[in-house]
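Running this now, will post back.
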Amino acid sequence: MSPLVRKLMMAARKGAVFAYRRSGGKVGGRALGGSPVLLLTVKGRSTGVPRTTPVSWFEHDGGYVVVGSGGGSTGDPQWFRNLRRAGTAEVEVGRDRHAVTVRELKGAERAQVWRDLVTARVPAFARYPEKAGRDIPLALLTPTS
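Update: finished.
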């Protein structure tokens, strides 16, 4: 990715985070497919610097399932790679903030949540694995308090 494209993407992400926070999630609180959006803050795996990213989520088992689709890109998004490494993060849903623990869903559990929750609620996600040429990772973020 060119430096210019990277800068533009960072600026767009920062603008989306600003609008979400300013409006309490009224602006930017839904993704194109209709899935709800939360703000995820997780430390970078190399830098340790916290970064905030809007991500799609689904309520599940008292927590938040987040979808590492990257819009159907061929690699897992950086935020998901950071999430795997961190083990903890913070989420903002509307104006509510929660510290969370992270557990990546694997195997049969991941397949069931993908089928019965993610693609059942937002059918557009069903085409992402083929488009991306990879399984789309899922993580369950569970509030710590």
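The chain has a mean pLDDT of 90. More later if anyone needs it.
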